[in-house]
């Protein structure tokens, strides 16, 4: 059957394509890339039923949308794209490099430094490095992304957030005049940080196992026997709960105000994401557990 493609901006006709009756939106994108707009690869396209409507999902069939021969679809250019995997790698490699750069070469920021880093500064550098090394490894071996790409312009915003906050925190903790907290803070901070990092990793592995490779299957996440997964009985996004916990205990470990600010800003952003996911879970699954909160047990 023949489909007419129009531009979202001004509804300008771009041409026509031919697809099978059982074609999906992804097939439409491929046809547009091959014929009408060779410079516009499928990830860069948004296909809509109306010029101001919502983007259609790639797996949606034209038949399910009652689209037949002679129908019209609207095309929006999303701009240059970058894969989510590459975005994550860029976001997390920066903090690892920047923090160790400040820790190992303090003279770049502070001038001549004669004293060696203290115990707390060294432990903080280890914790920071392990966290972002874990994130990089998870990006490569654990995470499965429901969306393939994001606009390239967002890469600079995301990287700026992580990289500049890293420089802000590293500057204070590795400063020659940094005052280390008591040993109790050190021990409690390291213990809590370690537990939360293991919990975060456990949840990411559980979520990976919920979705078979190459699919977009969604299921209700539930505890799987791993003690860290018990948090699913209380919140929808325990990975965010553990993530906030890691930075809370990192703040206890260092008693560094910028680290605490980083934890709070992260909590705010993750709460926004968690509330959205919690709402989607309840909408998608009628039997979704009613007692769960989004991110903070019994609170939020």
TrEMBL record:
> Which PANTHER family does the record cross-reference, listed alphabetically?
3-OXO-5-ALPHA-STEROID 4-DEHYDROGENASE (PTHR10556), VERY-LONG-CHAIN ENOYL-COA REDUCTASE (PTHR10556:SF28)
What is the enzyme's main class?
A: oxidoreductase
The entry lists its GO molecular-function terms as:
very-long-chain enoyl-CoA reductase activity
Q: How does it sit in the membrane?
A: Multi-pass membrane protein
Q: Which GO terms describe its biological process?
A: very long-chain fatty acid biosynthetic process
First-listed, main subcellular location of the protein, grouped into a coarse class: endoplasmic reticulum
Keywords attached to this Swiss-Prot or TrEMBL record, sorted alphabetically, are: Endoplasmic reticulum, Fatty acid biosynthesis, Fatty acid metabolism, Lipid biosynthesis, Lipid metabolism, Membrane, NADP, Oxidoreductase, Transmembrane, Transmembrane helix
Q: Which SUPFAM superfamilies match?
A: Ubiquitin-like (SSF54236)
UniProt pathway: Lipid metabolism; fatty acid biosynthesis
Its Enzyme Commission number(s) read 1.3.1.93
Spell out the family assignment given in the record's similarity comment.
Belongs to the steroid 5-alpha reductase family.
Q: Name the chain's protein.
A: very-long-chain enoyl-CoA reductase
An annotated GO cellular component: endoplasmic reticulum membrane
Q: Where is the Ubiquitin-like domain?
A: 1-75
Keyword flag Protein transport: no
Tell me where it resides: Endoplasmic reticulum membrane
